[in-house]
Amino acid sequence: MKAVNTLSYKTISANKETVSKQWVLVDAEGQTLGRLASKVAKIIRGKHKPGYTPHVDCGDNVIVVNAEKVNLSGKKWDEKEYIRYTGYQGGQRILTARELFARKPEALVEKAVKGMLPKNRLGRQLFRNLHVVIGPDHKHEAQKPITLAPDTIK
């Protein structure tokens, strides 16, 4: 019986030094909000990479352009509510998706992606890798982002 080379069976765990981060550009024009957000969250988390490690920021930086052209299906523009609390008595504030969109269009995409990230220190760190922009122009041209169509992300 031959001896098995046990060194070839070591599990590789990524860390801050071994992770290779890229910049990815995603166009939100004509995309459904939830489907787009789940794909963007997967890229930010790094689940599309073979070296994915759950407790490490091994995902990519994502730039979402044309955030104002995202779609919501059904009656969600009027029935979807975003609830926050000021901290004072009776301080519960409710905005519909349409009202939030009128105030700050990029907040729809940001809130959808943030809700799909972990609710801990790592999630807050991962959220900083998301850059949502209104319109097709962004300030991250120097990073040479790779353009990805949301339909190609699995």
What does this structure look like?
This protein has about 150 residues and is an alpha/beta fold. It has a domain at about 20-70 and about 105-150: Ribosomal Protein L13p, Chain: A (Alpha-Beta Complex), CATH 3.90.1180.10. The chain is built from 5 helices and 6 strands. The chain has helices at about 35-45, 75-80, 95-105, 105-115, 120-125; strands spanning about 25, 60-65, 80-85, 90-95, 130, 145-150. The strands form 2 sheets. Strands 5-2-1-6 form a 4-stranded parallel sheet, covered by helices on one side. Strands 3-4 form a two-stranded antiparallel sheet. A hairpin with a 6-residue loop joins strand 3 and strand 4 (about 90-95). Helix 1 (about 35-45) crosses helix 4. The N and C termini lie far apart (about 45 Å). The model has no long low-confidence stretch (mean pLDDT about 95).
